[in-house]
Amino acid sequence: MTDIVLECRKLWKVYGKIAAVKDVSLEVREGDIKLIFGPSGSGKSTLARCLAMLTMPTKGDVFLTGECLTKPGVDLNKARAKIGFVFQHIWLFHHRTALGNVELALRHVLKLSKEEARERAMRALREVKMEEWANHYPAQLSGGQQQRVGIARALAKDPKIIILDEPTSALDPELTGEVIDTLRDLAKKGTTMLTISHEMPFAREVATEMIFFDEGTIVERGTPEHFFEHPSSERAKKFLARLIKRTRRE
Amino acid sequence: MEPIEKLLFILAGLPTTLAISILSFLLGMIIGIPLAFVRTYMSRPLQVLVDGYEKVLRGVPEIVTMLFLYFGVGSIPVLGQPFTDPFFAATFALGLRSGANQSQVFRGAIRGIGEEQMLSARSLGLSRLQAIFYVIAPQTFMIATPGLGSEYALLVKDSAYSFILGVIDMMRKADTLRKITYDMVFPYTVTAFLYIVLTFPLATYLDVWGSRKKKQLGL
What is the ipTM of this complex? Predict the structure, then answer.
């Protein structure tokens, strides 16, 4: 049981009268690549943010490498430093170069020396093949390049897990490829990942488990083979059929 | 008096005018920045308090604030002592109002940056204060630069009110010049020109610099 990196138990997030996440339990083990998919507005992003404690869950518990994050008095900054988070809309810091974006947390959260932070940031940029663009500002980069910097920024801290919230869905279709390639590289290196994504070829190739999420809760979970060959729930079947049709059109 | 002598006579007040403008600008910044962050990130009652401060300081004519500080606050024993100095009272009055103005300038800039940058910073493990310091504040300054330029220009102009308290600034020198030379045109024409020279180039430069920076960074 010790290899569980991130886990949530009976997690709820309620906004007013609307429950965005309902009673969700799941666990991510070391080396796992969990892929969450489902209709928009189903609460996937909220779940991802709750797992990273960027949004406070209303009820239930989140554990990071065995430490409960949902009890009072936990240093959440320290916990977040161990989680890499990649946003759908990227959200790089506009006033800092690619390198500056990656360096920031290394300098001020991990408290590395200037040289050490620079070296590690460059290494992270190299991993996403953005080394040559280190001194460019986000506005000077394409969406795909920006997202690769976003991944490098999350990766550089050497997190226990990377959570990605639809990392390619805000990009033009021709730019998703380079980001998917980057994620595939990470997967091959054994990076523990939880990603929300509708990139089905990617899912089939690397996911250790797929989770179909709808109306705030897990409807069905299984291996890619399970989902692509014989999904059991009607909702998952329909959703997948639509997705695959759309992928073919593109 | 030769024109050049008249000009030098007025220019003798320039350092004082600049000192009042710059010091009140800095005081305004020291007041305005925290207020802007309070109004953006703090609890409702604190926001209402800041809002009240802004409304009062922006609503009262500058000259009333100056006279109030100089005579009113100045009449308080011990604590009011510094305000009996005309230069101090004038600078402080301008600084208080500039704080209200700059709070609004910075608040607009913070709002322009949006919650996303904060969330993004927090996701890395930065504390709220670190996020403000390393992520929000630098961008805020860039966005606020054009607004700060106009605020500086406003302070240079309004520093002229301080002559009411007896501060010997450019305005006072011009007035004295009129009295001793009986020249009704030259002193005020030249002074008007000098105020434009002090305000226009810098305000324009900051406006252009800020707009270019914003465009370059996609802010």
Answer: 0.91
